Structure formats: C-alpha cells, structure tokens
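Why show two proteins at once? Because comparison is the fastest way to build intuition. When a single record is shown, students tend to memorize it. When two are placed side by side, the eye starts asking what differs. So, the first record is below.
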Amino acid sequence: MAGIFQRLFKLGQSETHALVDKFEDPIKMTEQGIRDLKKDLQGSMQSLAQVKALALRMQKDADNNKRLAAEYERKAMLLLSKIQSGELDQAEAERLATEALNRKEEATRKALESQKDYESQEKMSSELQVKVEKLRRTVQSYENDLTTLKARARTAAATTKINRQLSTVDASSTLAMLEKMRARVEEDESLATAYGGLVDTEKSVDEEINRALAGSTGAPTDKLAELKAKMGIK
C-alpha cells in the first residue's frame, strides 16, 4: 500500500512541475517587463533631475541679470549726480551714464530671456514630474500584482496536484485493502492472546507441581496423616 501512495505522490509531483512550468514563462516575461520599466523609470528620473538643474540655472541667470540691471541704473544715476556737484564734465558724465543705461537694457533683456526660459523649463519639469510619478506608481502596481499572481499560481498548482491525486485514488480498492489489513491485524491479535493463554496454563501446572512437592516434606502433610489416623482412614 505504501508503494501505491508513493507512486501517486510521484505522479502528482511530476504534474505539479508541469503546472509550475506552465506558469513560469508568463511570470518570467512579466518580471522582464518590470525590469525594463524600472530602467525607463531610472532614465526618466535622470532626465527630470537634469531638467530641474537647468531650470534652476536659468532662474539664477535671470536673478543675476536683474541685479546687474539695477546696478547699472544706480551707476547711471550716480554719474548724472556728479554733473550737479561739478565732479564730472557734463558731456563725459552723460556719455558714461548712457553706456551704463545701455548695459542696463542689455542685462534687463537677458533677465527677461532667462526668466522666460526658466518658466518654459519649469513647465516642462512639472509635466515630466507627473509622468515620472505615474511611471513609478505603475511599476509599483505591477510588482504588487506579480507578487499576488505568483502566490495564486503556486496555490493553483498545489490545488491541482491534490485534486489530481484524489481523482486517481480508487476508493473501493483502497477500502478493500484496509479491510484486509484490519482482518489480518485482528487475526494477529487473537493469535497473540492465544499464545498468552498457553503461557499462563504452563505456569499453572508448574505451580501445582511445586506445591505438591513442597507439601511432601512440610507440616501440612503430617497433620493430614494424623487426622486420617484419628478417623481410622488408611
């Protein structure tokens, strides 16, 4: 009987391996797809970091040019004030003040361009951030789904194995074998009981013999003889 169950186990084991193999290919393909998505996510994050860094640099350029424009305006005003104080010739002061104002205009133009580029880059950065977060959530969702599907695949394989084993078991023949084993065990138990009775019988005969021998030399036998003599029994 043990051999039958062993053969059933081996059969179920081979079928389970076949079922696992059937699940393996889609699982491996899904795992590879997730790895590819992770690479895409990593590349997207690097691109996002570069875009953010460029936006910050543009913002810094805009702020620097704004400060520079304000500084040139301040210098132009100082140069014109020196005309009133007589520290500079009017023509020279106006020439230098005009140059300062020209540079102010150039710095202002650069500040506006940098600010416009920053706003465009920041918009692009925000859009890319949304896409990166969406891709991150997608990867996480796929990983969770894969974990669940792996567990379900193992459960399905184990359940199929058990059901297939149960379907291959012949209940009537198994019951007949169990009844045969039960009859054999009961027969062995009866035989053991019989041997135990023989042992007890042999012990009883030995005890009677021993008691008879002990009585031939003991006091009880003498008292019996005396009583028989008293009663006239030979």
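Second record. Ask yourself what differs from the first in the token line.
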Amino acid sequence: MTSRKIFRSMAMGIALALASTSALVSTPAHAQFGGIVYDPSNYAQNVLTAARTLEQINNQIRMLQNQATSLINQAKNLERLPTSILQPLQDQIRQTQQLLSQAQRIAYDVREIETAFAAQYRNVPLGASQQAMVEGAEARWQNSIAGFEDALKVQAGAVANIEGSRAAIGSLVGASQSATGALQAAQAGNQLLALQARQLADLTATLAASSRAQALHAADRAAAKRQAHEQLRRFLADRPRYVPGGSD
C-alpha cells in the first residue's frame, strides 16, 4: 500500500468520525426543538459518548499514522543501493588473471612445471657436450629473466588497481552514509567486502608471481652449481698432470 492510499483511508475515517459525532450531538437538539422535555443528564451522557467516540477515532487515526510510517520505513529498507562496483571489480580481477595466463616459458601449470624441471633443472645432462651445457644454462637463465618480467607485470597491474580501489571506496562509503534502509547499508557492506576480496586476489597474484621468479632463479643457481662442478672436473681432467722432475 502506498502512502497516498494510506492517507486517503485516514481522511475517510476522519470524515466518518465527524459525521457520527455530529449525529450524536444533534439528536438532543432535534429532540428539544420537537417538543420533547429537555433532559440534562441525557444530554450530558450523549456528549460523553460523543467525546469517547471521538477519542476512539483519534486513536484509530494515530494507529493508521503509525502503520503508514511503518510501511514507509519498510519500503525504504527494501530499496536497493543505486551504487554498484561489481562490474569494475570483475574486470580488474579478469585483467590480473590475463597477466598470470601470459606467463612466459614456464606457465602456472603443474604438469608443465614438472616437465620443465625434469628436463632443465633436476636431471642436468652432465654427460652432454660443452655446447649443450651452455645452451641449457642459457635456457635456464631465460626462464629466470622471464619470471622476473612476469612478476613485474603483475605488480604493475596490482598498482594500477589502487586508484580504482580508492574511487570505489569513496563511492561506497558515500553510499553507505546516505543509505535510507537496512538493505542499502547491507549492500554497501557487501560491496566493500567484494573490494577487499579483489585486493586479496591482487596480493595473491603478486606473491605468486614474485615467488615464481625467485623459485626459478634459485633453481637456476642450483642447476648451474651442479653443472659448474662437472665443467671444472672436465677442465682439470683435460690438463696434463704435473710430474715433479719430469723436465730433467
């Protein structure tokens, strides 16, 4: 029921009440002018009845006013928040996902990581030629460089989202402060939680990209150390042994 219909019902109730009161008051007057003997006690009783009737009508009016106020407040509580940052948040998360999916050389895939580490890091072909070892070291170095580059891209994307977060927070705080009902306040709070979730997603992506770069760099150093031992062994093996007094 709208507020216009409520107040129209109130007006009709007031009109009926006034009509009833007028009838009760005018009855003794009509009886008096019709030749009936005037009875003060009967007249006082009629006035008292009219007063009680009017009081009941006033109570009904106040009840209707309270109901109308309650319905108006309920309608306000059901009003939806006009501000929504859901789509921008989804777009920003999608951009972060795209940056992660563009990882170079070794992607964020368990099977691909297992294959790459088995071939380039864990099982370094120590019996390979010197040229093959150099090429393997070059490939591992390229993996490390690509990992650091990917981490910087993800970090740049997270930094770019800071301005969007600032604008979204300002919009949501303003909307929550001017909320007219419980639903609007709850929706503003839910959107703030969604913003925090996106910020956590950016933080997770940044940590994952940085950790990936560091892990690739550490794996490269471990493989290079093992390969260096083999290269040193070959170098020493190729040199002629020193024989004391052999020149005499």
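One difference worth noting in the second protein: The two ends are 121 Å apart (CA to CA).
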